[in-house]
Amino acid sequence: MSKVQDAVLSKLPITQDLFVKAKTGTGKTLGFLIPAIETALRNNDVRDLKTGKRVSVFIMSPTRELALQIAEEAEKLLSFYPFQAHCFVGGTSKGLNKKIISTRRVDFIIATPGRALDLLSENTIFQKQIEGTKLVILDEADQLLEMGFRDTITDILNRFPKERQTFMFSATVSPQIRKIAHLALKPDHIFLDTVDPNDVNTNLKVKQSYVVAPLTSQLHYLRSILEKHRETQSQGGKIIVFCPTTRTTALFASAFEAMGYPIYELHSRMDQSKRIKIAQRFKKSPNGILFTSDVSARGVDYPGVSLVVQAGTPTSREQYIHRVGRTGRAGKDGEGVLLLAPYESGFLKGVSDLPIEKSTEFTPIAESPETDKAVNKALRLVDPVLIEDSYRAHLGYLTSRAQDLRFPKSETLPIANDFYKGFGVEEPPHVSESFLSKLGLLGKRDKFSKRGGHFGGSFRSRDDRLVADRYSNDNGYERRPRGRDFQRSNTSSYGRPSNDQGRRSWHERGSRGSREHNADRMDRMRRESRDQHQY
């Protein structure tokens, strides 16, 4: 029994509101599900127990993955009782949710804030069903606030009966959390602190290190990190690689899949059913590599993860901690590696009190000409449309991080260009002036290059190249010219081209005045318009 489970379960039967400070990965899900079942059995009348037409327990979770994980645990426990649990999250059919509300028992509902508010606002049956709710649980309350759900939480809580019980679980107790506690909990609530005051909030069993690598070598350093770790894992071991954007996640996953690695890809642009299937497959895998965005950063438990790599800076100290927390769980050893570019090294000041040491063991693998040729061949299989979309999203990401990472916006383009050189892209994809203007980058270089080729040609001015040289210190790792012919696939989604037509270069597919070029240009403009709203 974990510390949080012991602290909560020793209070049974719990008749007051509860505020528990507890870290993720400490068994708190069972810590609130068991009291929830006890509360539902104790407070429901015979009629409600028989029909199941009232929501006895409502659990709010910040992310879909965590909500599904809670629902999975709830279903196991409720198999011994006359209750049913359902999970309502974004990305799933709202119509199916409404059908469940109308036709099934709704004893336990686990939901994300957005979907919960939608159903409570639109469905009169659901509004009626929560009138008798006995217990509301806010899990990961600090993350709910971090994700901007304060107003949504307030709206949802005001819809439940005032005489209910409320449990709130949070890894931190900030002034913002105290405000939510004041709103949600009764004045006589019980406060339980299960976090050791001497704990630095990261598992000391996790060996933590960082590497600062040249922009052009990020892909190769990551490959070195993965290879060296896999060599030490005779019994297998899973790896999670966190990436800064969903499209960078897809790009890394595609590149390493083409190199023959057993990869899994998980990010918020996937539909919910696909995310569930991939998460389940990775859980069962003995030694796969999961490339993911922050949908997997907190609360979600993947057993057997022996290494967490963060490719690029987290957005905060807390995010770094939660990502590292995916390994070293259940008393097992783990390792965390932070892979940074030179412009990101300032992040280390904010985590200087954590046991993160500089590593010198990770250098790009010394490759034979045959291996180098194989890697280049694998990179050529990565869908050019994916590279183009990823590049554009990366510009948005860099623009959004320029202030907190303290680099001038004028260096955004050369930083992105050098990063993508590591993927064999010598000439950056074309990006429209309107897109650059909306990112505030249009005046950050002298002018567009008028040379043709490669999705509209290079737009790096001479001054851009001079600025980029500051980020090209190879540290002994020689930059290899790849001379990749940037191509557009004929596939409709990210993947390998299906025939020779898909492998033809931009120039081979016709002049700039061709109808095919204009159609591709319009397609690119539509994607740019969509991506402008991401950051």
Automatic annotation (TrEMBL):
Its EC number is 3.6.4.13. Residues 221-376 form the Helicase C-terminal domain. It comes from the Eukaryota. It catalyses: ATP + H2O = ADP + phosphate + H(+). Residues 9-191 form the Helicase ATP-binding domain. Residues 488-500 have a biased composition (Polar residues). InterPro entries: DEAD/DEAH_box_helicase_dom, Helicase_ATP-bd, Helicase_C-like, P-loop_NTPase. Residues 470-535 are annotated as: Disordered. CDD domains: SF2_C_DEAD. SMART domains: DEXDc (SM00487), HELICc (SM00490). It is an enzyme of class 3 (hydrolase). One of its GO terms (molecular function) is hydrolase activity. SUPFAM superfamilies: P-loop containing nucleoside triphosphate hydrolases (SSF52540). Residues 470-487, 501-535 have a biased composition (Basic and acidic residues). Keywords: ATP-binding, Helicase, Hydrolase, Nucleotide-binding, RNA-binding. PANTHER family: RNA HELICASE. The Q motif is unique to and characteristic of the DEAD box family of RNA helicases and controls ATP binding and hydrolysis. Belongs to the DEAD box helicase family. RNA helicase. This is ATP-dependent RNA helicase.
